Amino acid sequence: MRAKIRSLIGGALLAVLATGCGSHVTLDPPTIPTPLIDKMPLSIALRIPSEFEHFVHEDEVLGREHWTIDLGRSNAALFTQLLGFMFEEVTILGPDDDAGILSIDALIEPSIDAFEFSVPSQSKTDTYAVWIRYRVKVYDSAGDLFANWPLSAYGKSEQTGLTGEAPLKRAAVLAMRDAAALMIMNLDKSTAISSLKDRPAVAVSAAAQVEAEAEIEAETEAIAEEQAPQTPQRREVVLPPPGPVSGPAELSMGPDDDDHSGSVLEGKDDE
For the domain that residue 160 is a member of, what is the CATH number? Predict the structure, then answer.
């Protein structure tokens, strides 16, 4: 009888431990402050791939903690809102919608190359951090690949004052806002998308298109490697401590970044 009781207690303890060794984090669609920029006079389409709109990352930390991070529609909401700020006319397309019937200057298709995170049990600190490597492809009005831009974003949140999954959610939202700031500052510089305004469509052979795409990808990867900061110099989006919002989000940039970039976003910092 005693052995049976010990067995039941042991099973219950294992169940509790198993429950405590994992977390499922679901992000709500983030918002970004209205940027102080002039819209580019382009008509674009934004294609939202299904795997981008419903991105889920699963990982184990130190072989003990199983984490599932469901970005849900947060990526789609972020890019829809952001491009609405940046361009005069934006048409949202689903994965299977045909952009060929639209009169547009360019089509933008985002994706996620990589997602990484760290929690206090790894870093031995009170810090949660999230890295997201986006890829932004730009197609011209003929449907040919024009630019292929890898974009790395970073967000960090302290556990102090926050409980449960809130610090990791906060870090993920800050990484998305970092990506938004980089898009605002560098999209045209890195892709030359503004040059597609009223550009006539030019037919090219399939072989030439494949070769051109390979060249564009090689060039953008080389530029990204040259410009990528070292890990200690990653950008951080700094928000006030939890409580009443006192002002806009500020971008704290690395020593090699634009000193004026922090003024791009203005408005209520509402997560």
Answer: 3.30.160.150
